UniProtKB/TrEMBL annotation:
This is Sarcosine oxidase subunit delta. It comes from the Bacteria. It holds the Pfam family SoxD. It comes from Mesorhizobium captivum. Residues 78-97 are annotated as: Disordered.
Amino acid sequence: MLITCPYCGPRDVIEFTYQGDGNRERPQAASQDLDAWNAYVYDRLNPAGDHNEIWQHSGGCRAHLRVVRNTITHEISSTAFARGGHKSAGHKTEGRS
Ligand SMILES: [Zn+2]
């Protein structure tokens, strides 16, 4: 599987570290809403299809990326820096090979 880092270009998945679900929203640090914290820490989506994920290019530029990956085909439809900045044009990469 290839992931296209907006900075480094297409790289093998072995250079990246999965950082988690990109859909979660962290409660405010001072929040005492235990249900919100419980959901943030433990609840996970398990979609069959496109999934927003955070990956770090740990073997490269170390940037955190927002990746949309199809969980069935492993096809990646877009990547972008997780904190705004440049956005990679939508691209298609092959699934698992
Ligand atoms: Zn990179």
